[in-house]
Amino acid sequence: MSKTKGQNYMHGAAILTIGVIIMKILGFFYKIPLGNILGDEGYSMFMGAYSIYYIFFTLATAGLPVALSRLVAEADANGRIRQEEKTFRVALVTFSVIGTVFALIMFCFPNWLAAVYLENPDAGPSVRAMAPAILLVCIVSAYRGYCQGNGNMLPTTVDEVLEVLFKVVSGLVIAVLVLRSYPPHHPMALPMGSAGAIFGVSIGSAVSLAYMIVYKRRHYASLAAPYTAGVHDPNDVPEDDDVADPAMKIVKDILSIGIPIATGACIMALLNSVDSKLCMNRLQSAAHFSYREAKVLYGVYGKAQTLFNLPAAFITPLTISIVPAISGAIAKGARRDAAKVSEDSMRISSFLAIPMGVGLAVLADPIMKVLYPGSHLAGAGLLRIMGAASFFVCLVLMENAILQASGKEKLTMVTLIVGGLIKIAVNWFLVARRDVNIYGAPVGTLCSYVAMAAMDYVFMWRTLDDRPRLLKVFAAPVAASALMALTAWGVFGLAQRALMPMHRIGALIAMCAAILAAVVVYMIAAITLRAVTKEDMKLIPGGEKIARILHMR
Predict the structure, then answer these.
(1) pTM for the predicted model, two decimal places
(2) CA dihedral for 231, 235, 240, 246, sign (positive or negative)
(3) b vs e for 240-252, b when ≥16 Cβ sit within 10 Å of the residue's Cβ?
(4) What is the band of 536 on the pLDDT scale with cuts at 50, 70, 90?
(5) Residues 140, 138: Cα–Cα separation, whole Å
(6) Which has the closest alpha carbon to 195: 133, 145, 270?
(7) pLDDT digits (tens, 9 = 90+) for 478-494
């Protein structure tokens, strides 16, 4: 049997982050052009269908792969190799069954989901086009969870990049071909164009699954074959002291860990679809916008959400890496190591998330005008609020990962339920006001995540032996981000005045100059204030050399 050696948690996070960067670049060539191809109205159908898919995706993959990763990490820490392999096999069957059920629901009832749940009947074809993807993603998540539990993040990174690459190419090509097949202004052109774009997700998922199957067969040869064949060769199969647990016990362990995480995470997925239903309903019934006006407002909100999700995408790799790192340390009784990983990961996530959120807020107007020319003017204001909210989203992601890895996953479910109720309440009242309208949605997001971040920290304070120290985590990144914000605001203002006659091109150049200046100032301030240290850099590939070049302490 070959068994790939795992990376330390920061190496793993660095590998995943490289993948995120590549995926975001690819995503830029997907959602940005797609938003312009479909327009605000067509993009509302795409976002509505995606929110339905995301509920099923989260139910099937948010908690169960984390549970699998944790169980595999614990088995690996205790040298139970047979247990690792059997856990994967049981999880694969479980995930496949769940994926089949969810795929059938989306395929058989797309029009009902679109009309009744989303209050956007035109999204029906897009919902059905998503059905194959949910089954494929469920199966893929079992392979990813197994590799992550072994501390190996490379296959997940390559797999996700392949998935996005094929999604981008196939989705855009199909969307354009479908739109061209209909005469101008045909009522089915936008619904079918959105469905064509979304079918690219299924194509990407199929390629992703093929890669993971091949990778596991090459690098993690199955332990089951020698035993099922009646052959016991100690040279091929490492011996451990314990036999593998019964299948039903493994299923029970996966579900007992995974269901609370999935339930809590599903609440956040529900919020995305509730956003669609609630916003569309309140904009029409209470704020008295027409159906088309409501679709346009929700569509530009969806475009702002694409950018709002960017900081969280860079934090997610770290949350994936720390779960097996903390779980493995606790399984070996090394609680101090687990506590250090927790605090360091929160500090590093703050180092990344705070400046990204500040940048989105400060440069919201040029970002929306450059990336989405011709969109509704509400876009910049929406992004400004969501930039502030994005930091709290990242904080909640990290706090939840620490609690889940420490065996406190049920507490995260409570936090997410409360946060979800806060968001629904704020949206209900604010979106209904015509003078506030769609701006109420990001305000609800901000309020809910601030509350969740505070609750998570209280739970960490009461249940964990060693809690992250807030001053050490936040002080330096906040100070450095404040300097960065002033720089971005000042440079953009000066550059825009100088380049004003160039209009959009001038705004693009001014924005790029402001971002470049802000990054330089932030890095200098962060290194000076020790927001990131030489010890941190040693944990990432090539980091020690970078630390020497930057004279880090």
Answers:
(1) 0.69
(2) negative
(3) eeeebbeeeebbe
(4) low
(5) 5
(6) 133
(7) 999 999 999 999 999 88
